[in-house]
Design a protein that fits this description.
Blueprint: E1 2-6, H1 11-23, E2 30-34, H2 39-49, H3 55-62, E3 82-88, H4 97-110, E4 112-113, E5 118-123, E6 145-147, H5 154-161, H6 168-171, H7 178-201, H8 215-227, E7 233-235, H9 239-248
Parallel strand pairs: 1-2, 1-3, 3-5
Antiparallel strand pairs: 4-5, 6-7
Helix pairs in contact: 4-8, 7-8, 7-9
Length: 249
């Protein structure tokens, strides 16, 4: 059984359900759970619970009393063969930048293996990066970045920038559209994987090894080349296409 943990309650589960229908075998047994808050709040809750805390115990406490709690009968993370978490970088968070980066670095160390505590994937600067593209395939995607002081408006920025007026280009799985939607995901996978390699290794091509674009490696390269610079920005990157590359490679 696989557990998918998302920051949000709408957009991320919507995208996952499309991926599930398009790419996963029908017999895949998965539970989807939304934390309903950001990665820095998750950090606080995990550290508050201390040694032995795992993502399932945190989520059970967070969702206690909810009728639709998908984890109400599950005690610990050991019930799952694999765990994946998807959260946003949120560069514009009210915390000091150094504290944001310290917490996220710790979380990426803690959640680095899907078969133990779980594997954390980060959207830069947030989930809306999934639609920050011109008509697919977008040859300039590897160049797109956004300054820190504009990250708070990124939802509107992505909407205005995008060639696509909605997420239908990724979520429409009707029979007559399914091949086009699947091709759109393939384009996004290629673009994001190559861009991750560009961020980490300065080449906008597929990496020689997927370890070259591990989540911790991407994060440290983002800090070195974009965030901790005079112009403080972040390279726009989405975690879902990189997850597809990791999972099915």
């Amino acid at each position: 059984m696989i557990l998918f943990v998302f920051e949000g309650k709408e957009r991320e589960p919507q995208l996952y359900r499309a991926i599930e229908k398009l790419f996963f075998p029908k017999e895949t047994d998965a539970i989807v759970c939304s934390f309903g808050n950001n990665i820095y709040e998750l950090y606080k809750q995990i550290t508050r619970l201390g040694d032995g805390a795992d993502i399932v115990s945190v989520l059970r406490e967070q969702l206690e009393g909810q009728e639709d709690n998908p984890l109400k009968d599950i005690a610990t993370s050991s019930a799952f063969a694999e765990i994946y978490l998807f959260f946003d970088y949120d560069l514009h968070h009210h915390l000091p930048l150094d504290e944001i980066n310290r917490r996220l670095r710790e979380m990426l160390v803690m959640f680095c293996d899907e078969t133990t505590n779980g594997k954390l994937y980060i959207n830069y600067p947030m989930i809306e990066s999934i639609r920050h593209t011109k008509e697919l395939p977008d040859a300039n995607y590897y160049l797109y970045a956004i300054p820190k002081d504009q990250c708070g408006e990124f939802k509107h920025t992505a909407h205005d920038f995008s060639h696509y007026g909605s997420l239908d280009f990724l979520t429409d799985t009707r029979e007559r559209r399914i091949e086009t939607t699947k091709q759109n995901w393939q384009h996004l996978k290629d673009m994001n994987v190559c861009k991750a390699n560009y961020i980490c290794c300065d080449e906008n091509i597929y990496p020689e090894n997927k370890r070259n674009i591990a989540q911790q490696t991407i994060f440290e390269a983002q800090l070195q080349k974009y965030v901790n610079t005079e112009n403080c920005s972040v390279a726009i990157l989405n975690a879902f296409p990189i997850f597809l590359y990791d999972y099915f490679k």
